[in-house]
Write the structure tokens for this entry.
Amino acid sequence: MIIPGSTSQEVAAELAAELGEPLSAVEYDWFADGETLVRVPETDDLAIVVASTVSSDAHVELLQLQDAAGQRADEVITVLPYMGYGRQDEAFEPGQPVSARAMARAISTGTDRVLTVNPHEEAVTDFFDVPCASVDAAGRLADPLPALSDPLFLSPDAGAIGLAETVRDAYGGGEADYFEKVRHSDTEVEIKPSDASTTDRDVVLIDDIIATGSTMSTAIAQLSEPNRIFATCVHPMLAANARTKLANAGVNAVYGTDTIERAVSSVSVAPVIAEKL
Ligand code: R5P
């Protein structure tokens, strides 16, 4: 039985169809004081809770879903299409928490194992007290791309070059390269151009997440006379005015997956999750 979180109903439905599993008609409620409550009307021996922790409320809701499902199921598997707080994978200053570890420990208490999609750093999977595996959905980002002219697949930093190569390989050809990025603050990044020529080429930018859109829009500003520009990512958080930043930067289209449900989430990660479960 698939138990969907309120923020992951699309991917949960896709996963249920993919696996041929029933989908529990979970009810979600919010009290006037801001607390959340869920009701899981039915489950069976195996409960697969599917919930992206895109907000603090979503984190609490996930713990509630695990607890409700675990009362009747023999095994609870937790699928985190997007793991919130995953980018806080270290204490950046003395006195700060390792937030990803704190979240992982809390999530571990209500589940037998965890599966997540493209965590920011693979090491985050070690923070869980139960087995945690990850799947790579980047290859699926090639699916919505149109036929490209002399394509260049670019990641905004060296750490994401593997994603650019994965999308390039899934597309079936082209050059892959990366920018050098220095982050000054939450919203300010400095990006130096890559060595690859961008003139008259279709450029596909690939990152694990677009959050404020600062990284992508700053990277786009470095492109010299490109043909078309496509911004792709696994996790389209698109917080605040990120989508507008991308539009103003000259992006022709944005493609993301349904780990976070947004208007641009045209690619489902359900098949890659189903394969690994
Ligand atoms: C950082 O290393 C990540 O891969 C992303 O580049 C970053 O988190 C995106 O954030 P934003 O959209 O806020 O620049």
